[in-house]
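Thread: "does anyone have the structure for this chain?"

Original post by V.I.:
We have the sequence but no experimental structure in hand. Need at least a predicted one for the grant figures.
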Amino acid sequence: MAIALMKRNYLNKSARPRVCIGAFCCLALTAPAVARTPPAYLFTLAPKYEPDAWVRGAERFPAGAAVYLVAGNERRPVAPGLFASADPFVSYDGTRVLVSGKRRQLEPWQIWETPVSGGTARQITSGEADCTRPVYLPDGRIVYTRRLPLGSALEVVQSDGGKIERLTFVPIFYLTDDVLKDGRILFEAARPESGEAKRELFTVYPDGSGEESLRCDHGNDRVEGRQMSSGDIVFRSDGRLARIQSASASQAWLPQPNAEVLGPVAEAVRDEWILAGRRPGKTQWSLFLWQAARKRLLKLYEPMAGSAVQPVMAAVRTLPRDFPSALVKSRRAANALCLRAGQSREPYVGVPQWVRVHSQNGEGTPIVLGQAEVAKDGSFFVQVPGDRPLRFEMLDAEGRTLRSERNWIWFRTGEQRICVGCHAGPEQAPENRLPEVLRVTPDPVLLGAGPQGRPRP
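Reply from O.Q.:
Generated one for you, tokens below.
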């Protein structure tokens, strides 16, 4: 069945389909007469949903779930052969959908693909660890989140399986969100340094290089991001809807519906979003159409039991840019060039004289890789191990700490990354000049150790 974008109209009667999700059987859904019918979309129906459980390594769908397609008055499961399915993500041509799924109750979650029009689901990943939140890359590959003994990791695999490439190298919890129009992967990650259960939105290229926070203010809790047709990234922040625009250095609050909301939102048309929400006094999540400009919240579906969450449109979308890898395969390490270490969005007192680089050993214990001198203009150029946790620290002439990174980061082996300053923020542009450190020598200062802790030559 081909899915076409339908003109909006009003439903004149309720529909009560019967569904079966493993032990979660015979759940009724109601569609109120006042709800509009948006273009075709998918959502996840779950007996129990704990959206923030992933940040502590727990199960978001502890009692199973099922992904449903809604097209006009039709509602049907898209992967009925699976015991459970969740996390729908539609291909850019609108014909296929990725889900996290399991064939039997006690099996781990894996990544599956099925036609939007209906058919047998095809398994893509395998193994004993949970694989969830799949997203299509523009070249047809798939990025998803795999559970690890310590945290989780983003991985990339071909749609027909095969070799897996790991993208993240800090032992914390991650969750895949979206692919931006410029080809970067949008994901959320725990912020253990905050001392609270806060998350932050980050971006990374499909080869694992260029990892950075979406914005460097690190104030609010940010999760469940998705990019709109306008280019804005809309997400849930401290329980409210917020957005980040490309020209803005910080987030802005959006008009808030009279309900508690979950992300991600699905853009039915510009400034009209399908979202999961619940009115005061309700325990389950329902689907609403939020007309932000009019500040109108229209109910779409309210389950008689359980929750309806994770809406996504079943429509053709513009293909993001395909980012070619810039990793130099012949390199055994990564290069880091800083243009002005004293430049920061949070000014600090003192003149940086040294940069010290930290990493972690195999047990996760912090270790010092070494330090290098900072040039008079604030520039430094160092070579560090790739695919390992890293943290940079700025020191004055007496060895006192002036500024230290709050989070662990990583560079890919073969990556060369250039930053404007120390915590300057991704919105900063560099000056058009040759840094002093490169006037002295074009070669980086070698820091770090090999896999067994021996200094590299």
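V.I.: this helps a lot. The chain has two domains: 19-313, 334-446.
O.Q.: and Residues 334-446 form a domain with the Immunoglobulin-like fold (CATH 2.60.40.2190).
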